[in-house]
Amino acid sequence: MIRIAVLASGGGTNLQALMDAENPFGRIELVIGSRSGILALDRARSAGIPTRVISSKKLGGEFAARMLETLAEFRTGLIVLAGYLTILPAEIINAYEGRVVNIHPALLPAFGGKGYYGLKVHEAALARGVKVTGATVHLVTEEPDGGPILAQKAVAVLPGDTPEKLQARVMEQAEWELLPREVRKLCRNLEWSKWRA
Ligand code: GRF
Is pLDDT of 197 > 90? Predict the structure, then answer.
């Protein structure tokens, strides 16, 4: 059983989708918030999942060490970034190579990289006038939104779309389907690689 840590910074709807999904190969054992007072932490608490707040703003240079210490304490086997806005230090990405996955609300490489997060992604898509956008699940490397792509799903942009309406459609039709499915596949493959090794 792969022990999953979910990292979040906001509403936690992707976390909720993971919590609601069947995953015989993995279990969410920890939710880490980038700050306190976010709905994602309330969602975890109401499901009895342990939570921690690890703030890079507050911890500065101690951030990576605290994060690694906490992940080791919970024997984390897979890190899922679900609406997580802090850039993970290379130290953490290297310690969990191939075991950090992120959901991005656009069809990477479009509207990805530095500065593209949350509503800004959808504002940029609408400003560019694209007719199709969507979501991408990818492995995390040191390059923001640059890691190997695992899955993508397209979502139509409709006349009269506002950033909020488009965000909701991308979440409902793409993010909440792709992330649980790809996390389950990753957990299955990690389990099997344990046996193969
Ligand atoms: C949303 O913009 C979502 O598209 C992206 O992160 C933001 C918050 O998601 N993945 P969540 O509701 O906190 O999961």
Answer: no
122 is an active site residue: no
User: Given the CA of residue 40, which atom of ligand 1 is nearest to it?
Assistant: 13
| pLDDT digit string, tens, across residues 116-168 | 999 999 999 999 999 999 999 999 999 989 999 999 999 999 999 999 999 99
Main-chain dihedrals φ then ψ at residue 2, nearest 5 degrees: -80, 130
Which residue range is the domain that position 89 belongs to?
A: 2-196
Ligand 1 pocket: which residues have CB below 6 Å?
8, 10-15, 40, 82-83, 103, 105, 118, 167, 171, 175
Look up the pTM and report it. 0.97
User: Helix crossing, 39-46 with 13-20: angle to 10°?
Assistant: 20
Q: Which of 76, 29, 85, 25 is closest to 54 using CA atoms?
A: 85
For residue 15, the domain's CATH number is 3.40.50.170
Ligand 1 atom having least distance to the Cα of 167? 4
pLDDT of 102 higher than 70: yes
